[in-house]
């Protein structure tokens, strides 16, 4: 079983992660991980923080030379903007963020104690762990990529740039839709036998766990609800060279909670960023008086970055299901199991 946990506050000293359950013998390409971390920082509409940080992984354990040794891989990523102890306290919860529910839950009157961890800065650790999982998956020809589909309902980059600039000038924000897909996934990852072994459920959980993701669909997803069965189900074919394959991929590569050998396709809807330059009305956490929500340094839109995080969540879930099926102690053995399928 592949397990992953993160720690770290947005303006704390470092973000840290532990990835456990990797096989021994996997060569870790740090350059690739750092390139993936850089991809998470990109996209039109990002805020000032991404100009400050230059994320780089520092691996602390689980590797000898460049190879994994089967023990937990732990790592850190420094926050250049380390200033948690001198930042002012926050009393005006932002609608759409974790601020109010988090403060009430943990009994804080300083919302900073919530927002430091609720911040999407945490996702840098997911991308580091996800990149390591991608390194494992590419040993078996599995590749994962994402594309931005739309921002604020617009699809052309020119229009997207325009509406992001308008939103920025008005102190507003935007969400959007991105797609993540995994190619070359073998048939039979996940299972229909239990709810918690279903690959679609595990992928949905991983993708929904990304901050601000409010809907996830696979393949034709919501559209399939208005179609006839004969229009939507993917006809099965067979050829000597391809084996079993489908004429279409409306199922998004998933049937019965298992991969079916076609490309896994997920689409995610991201709500607009919660922090607004022209803040919405809110209530002061101590005085209970009407105030404006707090304004923190913020992105206007972060759909491409969310796509990169989506790739990582998909890589973590697929790597976990892959190791379940093909064994997990060492890479050589896994390759044997994989070839013998
Ligand atoms: C890549 C990425 C960047 C984000 N940047 C910001 C940001 O700068 N400001 C902000 O208020 N929310 C940002 N968010 C969204 C919040 O983290 C998220 O809305 C908040 O944690 C509340 O969680 P929820 O939206 O899932 O309910 C970002 C999310 C992602 C995935």
In short:
Helices cover 32% and strands 22% of the residues. It has eleven helices and 16 strands.
CATH topology: Chorismate synthase, AroC fold
What small molecules accompany the polymer chains?
A: flavin mononucleotide
Distance between the termini: 20 Å
- Domain count: the total is 1
Strand residue content: 15-25%
Class from helix and strand fractions: alpha+beta
Q: What oligomeric state do these chains adopt?
A: single chain
Overall shape: it is globular
Order of adjacent strands in the largest pleated sheet: 1-2-6-3
Q: If you compute it from the alpha carbons, what radius of gyration comes out, rounded to the nearest whole angstrom?
A: 21 Å
Describe the structure.
This protein is of the alpha+beta class. It has one domain: Chorismate synthase AroC (Chorismate synthase, AroC fold, 4-Layer Sandwich), CATH 3.60.150. The chain contains eleven helices and 16 strands. The protein has a four-stranded antiparallel beta sheet with strand order 1-2-6-3, with helices on one face. The longest helix has 24 residues. The mean pLDDT is 97. Flavin mononucleotide binds next to α10.
